[in-house]
Amino acid sequence: MNDDESFFATSDPCWLAAALRHPVREAAVDVITSGLLSETIAAELSVIGATDVSRSLRPGSRVVIGTVEALRGAEIEPGLIAELTWRCGAVSDEGFVLLSSKDVVYIAALTERGLLYGFYRFLREPHLRPDLAIAESPARPIRMLNHWDNMHADSPLGSVERGYAGPSIFFHDGRIVIDKRRIIDYSRLLASIGINAIAINNVNVHQTEARLLVDQLTELADLADIFRRFGIALFVSVDFAAPLSVGGLNTADPLDTNVEHWWTELTARVYRAIPDFGGYLVKADSEGRPGPFEYGRGHADGANMLARALRPFDGTVFWRCFVYNAQQDWRDRTTDRARAAFGHFAPLDGTFDDNVVLQIKTGPMDFQVREPVSPLLGALPKTNLAVELQITQEYTGHQIDLFYLPRTWEEILDFDFDGPHADSGRASQRSSSSEGRTVAALTSARRGRRAGMVAVSNVGADANWTGNTLAQANLYGYGRLAWSDDISSSEILEEWIRLTFDLDDTDEHALHHVMYESPDTYEQYTAPLGVGWMVTPHTHYGPSVDGYEYSKWGTYHFADHTGIGVDRTVTTGTGYAGQYPTGWAQQYEFVERCPDELLLFFHHVPYTHVLHTGSTVIQHIYDSHFRGVEQVENMVSTWNSLRERIPSPVHDDVNSRLQLQLRNAIEWRDQVCTYFLRKSGIADARGRRIY
Predict the structure, then answer these.
(1) What is 142-488's CATH number, 3.20.20.80, 3.90.1150.10, 3.30.390.30, 3.40.50.920?
(2) Neighbouring C-beta atoms of residue 685, cutoff 10 Å
(3) Which of the pair, 1 or 13, is modelled with greater confidence?
(4) 118 Ramachandran zone, left/alpha/beta (phi>0; psi -120 to 50)
(5) Which residues are known catalytic residues?
(6) Helix (H, G, I), strand (E, B), or coil: what is residue 464?
(7) Rounded to whole angstroms, how far apart are CA atoms 518 and 383?
(8) What are the boundaries of each domain within the chain?
(9) Whole-number Å distance between alpha carbons of 122 and 103
(10) β-pair partners for 389
(11) Using CA atoms, how far apart are residues 470 and 467, in angstroms rounded to an integer?
């Protein structure tokens, strides 16, 4: 393991930094199970500083770590063995039990993987409690990260598409990095929050990365060796046209026998080098990426061809559903990008092989600050699916502006396709809806072993991993939400703050308030009422109200002198609202029922339309943008009040980003308010300065 270079020993705050303060450092610890992951646990204890002891189980302040099978062979009283066996019988293969008995804490599981997760869960406990009794299993079998990292053969550094934390940690000089100490640390970081799969390269597969499985298989095997020690399966994004671009064939037709043979032979070579290789991630027929459409074939044809190559090895194909026509005409109000994913994939339910997972973005567009939950997530009862989130802050502030994403993800997981319900508490709703049709339930273990969550990583080579230290909370929160339906985003944030910083209760509360409210703040000063896409083209940071209004991407707001919004109703619009089950379709169809926060996504309304809040649309635009700037000013003030309790380099870096956020918020406020004053001709009722 990487002791001296580990982030355990650095001054950069990280949620695992709490391990250096954990009582396990002073306790006697006995790992009584043999195996690769048990060796990882023992090495982690060595890094943290815990005391190694013999296998004899004498009384005292002790921690004993072992599978049920190993514990049965140890000198433990029969009654306790029976209890541990019973408790472990109620958890999954990745689950664990933490149990205190007579000054001894037992970390028990059915498998070594469960022990690893139990060990990291134990490190989140601030005290060696005598009444400790915890049993956990992951809510979702798939808990995956997608990296959008590029190799760049002509550049010394690997870049990260939509990366805001420095260059790639995987690629350098057009190859996989030689020094893998940073990757060891990263694997530890991911295992600590239960991540069990990772795709290391961009779904937009360029020529260099297309040859990864051919030219750098040995180096990939070295990476897989590291990930394996932390219970993480390696995946690779592949070019659907690789038989052409890499294999020298004259076609990539998925029904061509030569193409199928090429993938079969390639896959067999991969598994000879990496026996536990996870499989392939594919972006096809979207934004210029090649796919089966070029040969008159469908998505099931393409995905199933790859699935057959992987099936002998129990490998998995993740097939992204981000598919749409990128040649839309802004003059055409009948074609609607939002309809595309549902239109392509819902009719194919039940036609995909059982080792294919359809990877579906949270919304129908592209990770906007506010958009409805994708109806496709509720339309595939016979198909494996995973919901795709975006941790990297492409449209939510570039890890400059503060945006605590788990709060928005929690709303998505709570969404119930059976119909609108009163909010009875998000965490309890997720945990009590395992038999329902919430997004949480539809991606849970009850859907089978190939269901879960996938997220686009926000990690780069910056010393603090995420550029903005506070953006670490998004990575941590993703892991915790993927693992558990019994914890709220607010509780997750409390955990992260406690583990990352050494603050008193008052300061913890202040930081929690700023971070938890940050999605509302960002939404206040950016695009209003679900309309989206008012960002600067290409970079997607900062305001450009008409930046995408006349583009080919189908990202319009249709603002004119009378009103704003996209008519997506069945009655008069694009029909998108009709893709939802009846309850939601009826709510979105009628303007008087549509939630204010999604009004302009579903309806084109006059500026004088009165919201449920009692405000008009135009006055809401003015009020929210001024209010958003005020909230950022409060953020800056709160963060500055913590100056004496936060390490200076961290405080200074976050403060500099908050200053940029304030500048950004002011620019959004002034550009958006001015734009709509000029469009509508309606003055701000509060008489504030609008240019």
Answers:
(1) 3.20.20.80
(2) 12
(3) 13
(4) alpha
(5) 287, 366, 394
(6) coil
(7) 35
(8) 7-136, 142-488, 522-566+604-680
(9) 15
(10) 455
(11) 9
pTM score, two decimals? Answer: 0.96
Beta strands in 268-341 (DSSP E): 279-282, 316-320
Beta strands 96-101 and 133-136, pairing class = antiparallel
CB atoms near residue 589 (< 10 Å): 21
One DSSP character per residue, 189-212 reads HHHTTT--EEE-S-SS--HHHHTH
Structure confidence by residue, pLDDT tens digits, 25-56 = 888 899 999 999 999 999 999 888 776 654 44
Q: Which helix (H) or strand (E) holds 441?
A: helix 439-442
Residue at token pair 């590291």: 226
Among residues 599, 623, 472, which one has the least CA distance to residue 165?
Answer: 472
Tens of pLDDT along 476-508?
Answer: 999 999 999 999 999 999 999 999 999 999 999
Contact 446, 525 (CB under 8 A): no
Q: How far apart are CA 31 and CA 53, in angstroms?
A: 9
Q: What is the pLDDT of residue 157?
A: 86
Of the segments 123-137, 144-158, 254-268, which one has the largest average pLDDT value?
254-268
CATH superfamily of 522-566+604-680: Alpha-glucuronidase, C-terminal domain (3.90.1330.10)
Amino acid found at 654: V
